[in-house]
């Protein structure tokens, strides 16, 4: 077995792959090998990595050793665990796969969980459920905990509990010089602030401790409406959102569903409107609040019921199989009647856009409040978040990005000019500009200054919007 060596300079006579194999205990894969393809595979298969080498890290020491080799070789570093939201690593990068950093421990008394960088949300949900606890998972429990959280993390009950990043207690971080440290608000307040909401440009998080909440069941699910009823339901949802308490979280999406056999028969091959809803409040007046939406039209399918918190993935029912997609997102300052009508006119069936989904998530509530320990999460003042998704498959692949951009352009009159980091859909161009706009001048400047301090040579430049 390989051992960790602290001096990559001594390894210069070797190729990058050989250098890595001398210092890494885990697997190292070279281009053109089967292991390389498997270890660099992404959930979004439209993203193709072509790094100089792939390291499947066995532990944090492997991550640190790979970073030191990259820095000594003049290469950058990219990182992924599950491949959700992956951005392509090029030939000047070493890709570090953290999927095997899979430790998980729960402190029931403290109501915290500590996870390795490779842990997916469903594992946390299943492990914490017997204790009546849960973490702030996103709509897709198959996604990685760490990547989702450091990007902000806005899930199906976010109006009640806020962003996932707001509840991080401690991080284990590999810095650009290859050192490993424990980071919290006391040990390194600037780095702790930046990573929580600033993403992966400041270091590689190999372990994270975060708060859990007393979550056992939700009154949650979705109402699927025929698209002919969509204009009335959208207008009604818009009014309803302004009246609901922050114990209720909701979004609405136009879906173009394929004729797949695993979909309910009533939905196969149809364009529908999906109202998503969740509340952890068990009082009757809150569990019945969804009745106002049911009264707008007769749903094709009604899945709203009491569910175990560990099953919250059923609310959005996001796809679980890898697929090639493009994404775009933006924040909305308001949603007047004109905006909701424009939304439907732009994404509805008459527009014939090659998209899978266009969603508006209600923000406000706990999302609008600052974290107890300040962080770099952007977009707190927005009222709604718009997210669009298209599948890059023939014959529509070349038209998808343009279609997504056209939706954002149509909604621009009501936008803030910004986007949430996790929903921006890109690391360059307009998506990157929107992320920095959401941070604002003060936060964006502070993030750049911290980045220059912790990574002056740009070792992590391939990992985020910088």
Quick rundown:
This protein is an alpha+beta fold and 466 residues long. It is 28% helix and 22% strand.
Describe the overall structure.
The chain has 14 helices and 17 strands. It is α+β, with helices and mostly antiparallel strands and 466 residues long. Strands 10, 11, 12, 13, 14, 15, 16 and 17 form an eight-stranded antiparallel sheet that branches. A five-stranded antiparallel sheet has the order 5-6-9-7-8. The chain has a four-stranded mixed sheet with strand order 1-2-4-3. The longest helix has 26 residues, at 429-454.
- Counting DSSP H or I runs of 4 or more residues, the number of helices is 14
Which band does the percent of strand residues land in?
15-25%
Major sheet: 8 strands, antiparallel
End-to-end distance? 37 Å
How confident is the prediction overall: mean pLDDT? 93
Helix content: 25-40%
**Total number of β-strand segments?**
17
Radius of gyration, whole Å:
22 Å
List segments where confidence is low: pLDDT < 50 over at least 5 consecutive residues. 8-13
Structural class: alpha+beta
Keywords:
alpha+beta, 14 helices, five-stranded antiparallel beta sheet, globular, 17 strands, 466 residues
What is the element layout, followed by pairings?
Blueprint: H1 16-23, E1 27-29, H2 34-39, E2 53-56, H3 60-73, E3 76-80, E4 93-97, E5 104-107, E6 112-116, H4 121-128, H5 145-150, H6 158-161, E7 168-174, E8 180-183, H7 189-198, E9 204-211, E10 217-226, H8 230-241, E11 248-256, E12 271-279, H9 284-287, H10 291-294, E13 301-302, E14 305-308, H11 313-316, E15 325-332, H12 337-347, E16 357-362, E17 384-391, H13 397-411, H14 429-454
Parallel strand pairs: 2-4, 3-4
Antiparallel strand pairs: 1-2, 5-6, 6-9, 7-8, 7-9, 10-12, 10-13, 10-14, 11-12, 11-16, 15-17, 16-17
């Amino acid at each position: 077995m390989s051992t960790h060596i602290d001096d990559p300079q001594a390894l210069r006579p070797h190729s990058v792959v050989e250098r890595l194999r001398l210092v890494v205990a885990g697997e190292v894969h070279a281009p053109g090998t089967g292991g390389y393809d498997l270890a660099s595979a992404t959930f979004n298969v439209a993203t193709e990595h072509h790094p100089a080498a792939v390291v499947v890290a066995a532990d944090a020491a492997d991550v640190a050793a790979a970073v030191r080799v990259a820095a000594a070789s003049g290469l950058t570093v990219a990182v992924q665990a599950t491949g959700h939201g992956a951005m392509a690593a090029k030939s000047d990068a070493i890709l570090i796969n953290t999927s095997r950093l899979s430790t998980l421990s729960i402190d029931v008394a403290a109501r915290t969980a500590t996870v390795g960088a490779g842990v997916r949300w469903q594992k946390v949900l299943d492990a914490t459920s017997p204790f009546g606890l849960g973490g702030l998972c996103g709509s897709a429990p198959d996604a990685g905990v760490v990547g989702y959280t450091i990007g902000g993390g806005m899930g199906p009950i976010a109006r009640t509990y806020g962003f996932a990043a707001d509840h991080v207690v401690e991080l284990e971080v590999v810095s650009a010089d290859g050192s490993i440290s424990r980071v919290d608000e006391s040990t390194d307040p600037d780095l702790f602030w930046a990573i929580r909401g600033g993403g992966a440009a400041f270091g590689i998080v190999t372990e994270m401790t975060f708060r859990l909440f007393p979550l056992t069941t939700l009154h949650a699910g979705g109402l699927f409406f025929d698209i002919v009823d969509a204009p009335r339901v959208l207008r009604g949802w818009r009014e309803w959102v302004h009246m609901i308490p922050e114990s209720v979280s909701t979004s609405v999406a136009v879906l173009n569903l394929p004729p797949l056999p695993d979909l309910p028969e009533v939905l196969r091959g149809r364009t529908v409107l999906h109202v998503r809803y969740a509340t952890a409040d068990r009082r009757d007046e809150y569990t019945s609040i969804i009745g106002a939406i049911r009264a707008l039209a007769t749903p094709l399918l009604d899945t709203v019921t009491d569910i175990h918190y560990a099953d919250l993935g059923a609310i959005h029912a996001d796809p679980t199989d890898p697929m090639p997609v493009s994404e775009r997102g933006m924040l909305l300052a308001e949603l007047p009647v004109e905006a909701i009508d424009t939304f439907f006119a732009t994404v509805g069936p008459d527009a014939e856009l090659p998209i899978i989904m266009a969603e508006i998530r209600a923000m406000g509530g706990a999302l609008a409040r600052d974290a107890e320990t300040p962080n770099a999460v952007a977009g707190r003042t927005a009222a709604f978040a718009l997210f669009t998704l298209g599948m890059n498959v023939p014959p529509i692949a070349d038209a998808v990005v343009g279609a997504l951009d056209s939706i954002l352009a149509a909604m621009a009159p009501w936008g803030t000019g910004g986007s949430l980091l996790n929903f921006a859909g890109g690391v360059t161009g307009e998506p990157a500009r929107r992320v920095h706009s959401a941070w604002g001048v003060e936060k964006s400047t502070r993030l750049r200054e911290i980045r220059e301090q912790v990574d002056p040579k740009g070792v992590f430049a391939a990992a985020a919007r910088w």
